[in-house]
């Protein structure tokens, strides 16, 4: 774990630096799409993806930057996509909410709530029918648990013993409504009792806890144990959609916000490094510096890249 914590920090730091840069540049008006930032939720993405291989396949949501980066997606292509450029991972046609990189195993990011969950199940069914050893992973938020398709997919996955990992990132809010106003008390904590599916619950801001829980879940799924579920408690520091802060709106209190700020996954990771490495300051500084270079290069790449050509507008459009 001592060596692994450095790998964790590299990814969490990279996600934080890239998303902070998106936040600071967004009002320049060059990013032609909405952005849903994952700042504060990085440990859940990294903790899960550090246990996955390239051949394992990830499905994400509108808040997909962290999943894309954690799974090894190309940073240049991601920023170019957000800028709507031809060099983007979807050739500038998808934007922030539609990140895709087949070479990294990021199969789809879909903004409609819950809609990526059945896609992941379909992929898991194909994996099983072809007797492959990889798995599919569906990331979704706590709001997805209020959609019927979640239960239909859960039922199908359990019956067919699909190699599918359900990952619920419970960031407490569906846009601006707290989970306590939307679901029965602690409902999200009862899946192991309500359904015949192995379910792991842990603090989603503690990278070591997420890594260890997902390691167990993924190992069992890959050994033919059928689907698993992980519920991770976490919190977004930025507004639901956009680059800014939203405390002025009053739907969440400063006390609650500060509680979660004190649980910042980046700082938690730093504390582990501080305890385990004598030269921790130099180590952290070097990683942050390298990640800043990667980030800056990606924005330069996006700025210099061309927009898609109008004559290609019908390319990659499919119909029967």
TrEMBL record:
One MF term from GO for this chain?
Answer: pyruvate dehydrogenase (acetyl-transferring) activity
**Transmembrane domains' residue ranges:** none
Q: Biological process (GO) annotations?
A: pyruvate decarboxylation to acetyl-CoA
Q: Which cofactor does it need?
A: thiamine diphosphate
- Family matches, as InterPro entries: DH_E1 (IPR001017), PDH_E1_Alpha_Subunit (IPR050642), THDP-binding (IPR029061)
Query: Catalytic activity annotated for this protein?
Result: N(6)-[(R)-lipoyl]-L-lysyl-[protein] + pyruvate + H(+) = N(6)-[(R)-S(8)-acetyldihydrolipoyl]-L-lysyl-[protein] + CO2
Task: List residues of the Dehydrogenase E1 component domain.
Answer: 11-309
Q: What UniProt keywords are attached to this protein's entry? A: Oxidoreductase, Thiamine pyrophosphate
Give a single Pfam family match.
E1_dh
Q: Would the keyword Ligase be found if you checked this record's keyword annotation? A: no
Highest rank taxon of the organism: Bacteria
Cited function: The pyruvate dehydrogenase complex catalyzes the overall conversion of pyruvate to acetyl-CoA and CO(2). It contains multiple copies of three enzymatic components: pyruvate dehydrogenase (E1), dihydrolipoamide acetyltransferase (E2) and lipoamide dehydrogenase (E3).
* Name listed for the protein in its UniProt record: Thiamine pyrophosphate-dependent dehydrogenase E1 component subunit alpha
């Amino acid at each position: 774990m001592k060596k692994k914590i450095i790998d964790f920090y590299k990814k969490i730091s990279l996600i934080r630096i890239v998303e902070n840069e998106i936040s600071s540049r967004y009002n320049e008006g060059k990013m032609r799409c909405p952005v849903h930032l994952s700042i504060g939720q990085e440990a859940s993405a990294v903790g899960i993806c550090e246990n996955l291989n390239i051949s394992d396949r990830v499905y994400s949501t509108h808040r997909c930057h962290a999943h894309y980066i954690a799974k090894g997606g190309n940073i240049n292509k991601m920023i170019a996509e957000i800028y709507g450029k031809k060099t983007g991972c979807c050739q500038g046609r998808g934007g922030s909410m539609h990140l895709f990189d087949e070479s990294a195993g990021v199969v789809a990011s879909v903004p409609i709530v819950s809609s990526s969950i059945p896609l992941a199940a379909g992929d898991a069914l194909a994996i099983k029918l072809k007797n492959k050893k990889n798995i599919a992973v569906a990331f979704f938020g706590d709001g997805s648990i209020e959609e019927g398709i979640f239960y239909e997919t859960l039922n199908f996955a359990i019956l067919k013993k699909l190699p599918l990992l359900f990952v619920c990132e419970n960031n407490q809010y569906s846009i601006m409504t707290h989970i306590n106003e939307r679901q029965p008390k602690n409902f999200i904590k009862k899946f192991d009792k309500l359904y015949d599916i192995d379910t792991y619950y842990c603090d989603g801001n503690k990278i070591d806890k997420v890594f260890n829980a997902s390691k167990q879940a993924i190992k069992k799924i890959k050994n033919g144990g059928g689907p698993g579920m992980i519920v991770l408690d976490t919190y977004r520091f930025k507004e639901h959609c956009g680059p800014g802060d939203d405390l002025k709106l009053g739907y969440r209190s400063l006390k609650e916000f500060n509680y979660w700020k004190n649980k910042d996954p980046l700082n938690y990771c730093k504390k582990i490094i501080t305890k385990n490495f004598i030269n921790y300051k130099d180590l952290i500084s070097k990683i942050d510096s390298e990640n800043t270079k990667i980030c800056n290069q990606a924005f330069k790449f996006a700025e210099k890249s061309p927009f898609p050509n109008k004559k290609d507008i019908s390319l990659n459009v499919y119909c029967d």
